[in-house]
Amino acid sequence: MSSIIISGREIPYTLKISARRRTLGLRIDERGLTVHIPKRVPQHTVESLLQDKSEWIARKLAEWQDRPAAMQWQDGAALRYLGQDIQLSLRVDARNRAVEFDSARLYLALPNPDDDATVQRKVAQWYRKQALVDFTRRIELLAAKLGVPKPPMFLSNARTRWGSCNSRGEIRLHWRLIQAPPHIIHYVVAHELAHLKEMNHSPKFWAWVEKLCPDYSTARQELKALSAQLHLV
Ligand SMILES: [Zn+2]
């Protein structure tokens, strides 16, 4: 393994040489930094690329290190629902039982509770169901407050956005938001509804958001800080 010094810190990296590559490429994941290069690229070219990209490398590595540990789909696992910690309760049952929730625990009874993919899918299904009910109610309330007709709403699974509003006035909200505290969901709904008034992020737009959600800037920051956590499920 080679290494490079970035702002006084030694960063190890793996060099991968490929005959089919034409360009140099960097990748950062759980294994650290990997540099993909075509054949016959001199070492000093690699090093100067890494120096050019040193800010990006440092930032991406820090993001990976701050990433919360992966979700373990086992009995007793901690989940979140509307900002509350709830516990996953897994039980073997000859048949798939309907998911039950008692405000502290989410009960899943199924033939194969060791099958992570199935457990994850069932939990996600439950979240989606709750999200649909919760978001619909919030949209109704806030649309009335804004004085606009209730827009069509869909659940989304977008990788990078919590909500969106298109030119047809349809609102999409990410189902994983149902894990967040209510005031954060309130902010995202307010944000997307305000787009029915202003299709941009101008001061006029933010004034509408503020009308529906006076504390929007705190909620916005909290959501940013929470995002990686919400994506674990
Ligand atoms: Zn927006």
Question: TL;DR of this structure?
Answer:
This protein has six helices and eleven strands. The chain has 233 residues and is of the alpha/beta class. The strands form three sheets. A four-stranded mixed sheet has the order 1-2-4-3, covered by helices on one side.
How would you describe what is shown here?
The chain is of the alpha/beta class and 233 residues long. Helices cover 39% and strands 25% of the residues. It is built from 6 helices and 11 strands. The protein is globular and about 65 Å long. The protein starts with a strand and ends with a helix. The mean pLDDT is 92. Zinc ion binds at residues 191, 195, 201.
Give the class from helix and strand content and strand pairing.
alpha/beta
**Rg over C-alpha atoms, rounded to the nearest angstrom:** 23 Å
> Level of helix content?
25-40%
Strand order in space, largest sheet: 1-2-4-3
Per DSSP, the total helix count is: 6
Layout of secondary structure:
Elements: E1 2-6, E2 9-18, E3 25-29, E4 32-38, H1 43-52, H2 54-66, E5 78-81, E6 84-92, E7 100-101, E8 105-110, H3 116-146, E9 153-156, E10 163-165, E11 171-174, H4 182-194, H5 203-212, H6 216-230
Parallel strand pairs: 2-4, 6-8, 9-11
Antiparallel strand pairs: 1-2, 3-4, 5-6, 7-8, 10-11
Features:
alpha/beta; four-stranded mixed sheet; 6 helices; globular; 233 residues; binds zinc ion
